[in-house]
Amino acid sequence: MWVSHCARPERTLSKDDELMEQLIEEEQAYLQHSRHELVQQEKREKQRKMRQREELLDNLEFSDLPAGLVLASHTARQEEEMEKKPAPTIKFSTGIRIGGGTSFLPVPKVVEAALYQYRPGTVDILGPEPPQITLLEENGYMSHMRDSSEVDMAGGYTTKLGCHRALQEAFCGLYFVPDLTADSVRQEQDMEVE
Q1: Residue 7 · residue 68 · CB < 8 Å
Q2: Residue among 166, 155, 156 nearest 133 (CA)
Q3: If DSSP states are collapsed to H, E and C, what string results for 115-171?
Q4: Which of 34, 41, 152, 162 is 20 to 30 A from 72, comparing alpha carbons?
Q5: Which residues are 90's β-sheet partners?
Q6: 107 is a domain residue
Q7: Residue that finishes a domain, picked among 95, 115, 147
Q8: Are residues 90 and 20 in the same domain?
């Protein structure tokens, strides 16, 4: 059986892809390093506890002091070590240290201003006020409107909304009177002269 192999072009990585791969590799290296460091820290902690235990046993065995005083001095020494021990700094994968002494700018104070008060918009339609949407059926405006389909109603459209919009457009501009401007006055005077 004859099989043809198509040579596919090698995919070249863009700068963004290279940067992402580099960041992923750095993060994996950091995670591996932090795991290794955590294991080492646990070993050191176990060794420290073993040393403290052995030291306590030696002090209890070979000291001439009463056991209560030896235990009290041992617990006091442990508390001092815990206070002296600084909190380990941990780095995020982005390189930002937690507790590393970074300083941030203070949050700017918000200027107190008057609270926002809603004022409904007013539209001057230059005509009579159309009837309210709740009164359309009572006044007989809905008798010649086609019913809205389920798809229209799913989108928020209702027959009353369409009727109300049509009435707004019909009433708009019924009282419109153009202003008499200097140009219109001149045109009227020119027409009278002719």
Answers
A1: no
A2: 166
A3: CCCCCCCCCCCCCCCCCCHHHCCCCCHHHHCCCCCHHHHHCCCCHHHHHHHHHHHHH
A4: 41
A5: 98
A6: no
A7: 95
A8: yes
Among 1-15, 42-56, 68-82, 105-119, name the one with the lowest average pLDDT: 1-15
Per-residue pLDDT tens over the stretch 49-94: 898 889 888 888 888 888 888 888 888 888 888 777 665 666 666 6
| Burial class (CB within 10 angstroms; exposed 0-12, middle 13-18, buried 19+) of 70 | middle
Enclosing domain of residue 47: 15-95
What tokens does 134 get? 């709740």
3-state secondary structure the chain: CCCCCCCCCCCCCCHHHHHHHHHHHHHHHHHHHHHHHHHHHHHHHHHHHHHHHHHHHHHHHHCCCCHHHHHHHHHHHHHHHHHHCCCCCEECCCCCEECCCCCCCCCCCCCCCCCCCCCCCCCCCCCCCCCCHHHCCCCCHHHHCCCCCHHHHHCCCCHHHHHHHHHHHHHCCCCCCCCCCHHHHHHHHHHHHC
Whether residues 90 and 139 share a domain: the answer is no
What's the one-letter identity of residue 124? D
Largest CA distance in the chain: 135
Residues 151 and 91 in one domain: no
Integer distance in angstroms from the first to the last C-alpha of the chain?
100
Nearest to 148 by CA among 135, 129, 164: 164
